[in-house]
Design a protein that fits this description.
268 residues; mainly alpha; 2 domains; two-stranded parallel ribbon; 14 helices
């Protein structure tokens, strides 16, 4: 067999395997996709805080709902509304306190900061540079806020409703000097009422109330009985309305049997 020259073998190798410096073809860089424009939350908040717009804002916690409402109050006052003409309702006392503090702090800054900073704040609030009249109005609002009779009305729904009842006692049928019972006091009075019911049953075992309780107690535990009495107490207004529609307790019982299509006196 003829001996091969190493140089000839080297020449027969393909260039890619022969040349260590050979570069593989490079891929073209992928085109960058166009990014969606970044949304500016201030634009949406300005629209929602516009006092000329009727707006419903729904969002999760911490997304700026209180800020929108605060900005709306500030813009209302900038447009000429006085504090006693504005009413804000919240669900909690904490929410009302936060709003009041934010408005007071912002107005105090407006009253004391330099012209450049005030212009920046007013521009950010409304989205446009303020004129001289708006700037002057912003300077005066803190004193107006402090001097307002009764202050800015930022209340919970419950406190606002109570104020209406006190103002219209005849229409509401409730004495104007009522007190609102807190949850702890209500629970204590409910427990006392339950104990009073049981004492009455022991004294008068043949009354309709005693028979009703004797019919219920085998079906529920002690805790369930307390919960049942609490639910009936909570819905007493609805029960009284039903009794009135049917003509009384016995008539209501008859209506229940009729609805269930069961003969009177059948249990279960």
């Amino acid at each position: 067999m003829p001996k091969q020259n190493p140089d000839d073998l080297h020449k027969k190798l393909p260039p890619a395997a022969n040349d260590a410096t050979h570069e593989a073809p490079q891929e073209k860089p992928a085109k960058k996709s166009a990014r969606a424009p970044k949304l500016d939350p201030n634009i949406a908040q300005r629209k929602a805080s516009d006092p000329l717009a009727s707006v419903w804002v729904t969002a999760s916690a911490g997304t700026g709902k209180t800020k929108v409402l605060t900005d709306r109050v500030l813009r209302l006052m900038l447009s000429g509304a006085t504090p006693d003409q504005i009413l804000c309702l919240t669900f909690t006392k904490a929410g009302a306190s936060v709003m009041t503090n934010r408005i007071r702090e912002e107005l105090s800054v407006w009253a004391t900061c330099d012209d450049k900073k005030l212009e920046e704040k007013l521009t950010k609030l409304s989205g446009k540079a303020p004129d001289e009249a708006t700037t002057k109005r912003a300077r005066q609002m803190f004193a107006e806020f402090l001097d307002a009779h009764g202050g800015l009305k930022i209340q919970t729904i419950h406190s606002f409703s109570q104020s209406l009842i006190r103002r219209f006692p005849i229409e509401s049928g409730i004495p104007p000097y009522f007190d609102v019972m807190d949850d702890q006091t209500a629970a204590e009075m409910l427990r006392e009422s339950q104990a009073d019911i049981l004492r009455r049953i022991q004294r008068e075992p043949n009354t309709p109330l005693a028979r009703a309780v004797h019919a219920v107690t085998p079906e529920v535990s002690e805790d369930d009985f307390a919960a049942l009495i609490g639910e009936l107490t909570y819905r007493r207004g609805q029960l009284l309305a039903i009794f009135g529609e049917q003509g009384g307790l016995e008539e209501t019982i008859d209506a229940v049997y009729d609805h269930l299509q069961a003969p009177r006196g059948i249990d279960g």
